[in-house]
Amino acid sequence: MLNDYNIIIKPLITEQGMHFANTRSAYSFEVDKRANKTQIKNAVEKIYSVKVLKVRTANQRGKYRRRGLTHGMTPSWKKAVVYLQPDHHIDLF
């Protein structure tokens, strides 16, 4: 059973993410792979006390990596972009 604090793993702080946060009120998070859009919306609203307009999700596949003779894959993960109401924002710093 997923609770709100297990759904949101960490915020993704990137240059493009900061641009979208300032211009579109859109914030990126790494989320649990089993979480759906409704669960993500409820978790963000509860943790950050904001109103969510919409949620977009994407499954990021792990990349092939090689070091010398050994090879493997990086882990797969799920990304969520959360769009907030225009009068709401999240202070990440």
Secondary-structure map with pairings?
Elements: H1 4-7, E1 8-11, H2 15-24, E2 26-31, H3 37-48, E3 52-60, E4 64-67, E5 70-73, E6 77-84
Antiparallel strand pairs: 1-2, 2-6, 3-6, 4-5
Q: Can you tell me about this structure?
A:
The chain is an alpha+beta fold and 93 residues long. The protein has a single domain (4-84), classed as 2-Layer Sandwich (Alpha-Beta Plaits). It is built from three helices and six strands. It has helices at residues 4-7, 15-24, 37-48, and strands at residues 8-11, 26-31, 52-60, 64-67, 70-73, 77-84. Strands 1-2-6-3 form a four-stranded antiparallel beta sheet. A two-stranded antiparallel sheet has the order 4-5. Strand 4 and strand 5 form a beta hairpin. The longest helix has 12 residues, at 37-48. The protein is globular. The termini are far apart. The mean pLDDT is 94.
Quick overview of this protein structure:
This protein has 93 residues and is of the alpha+beta class.
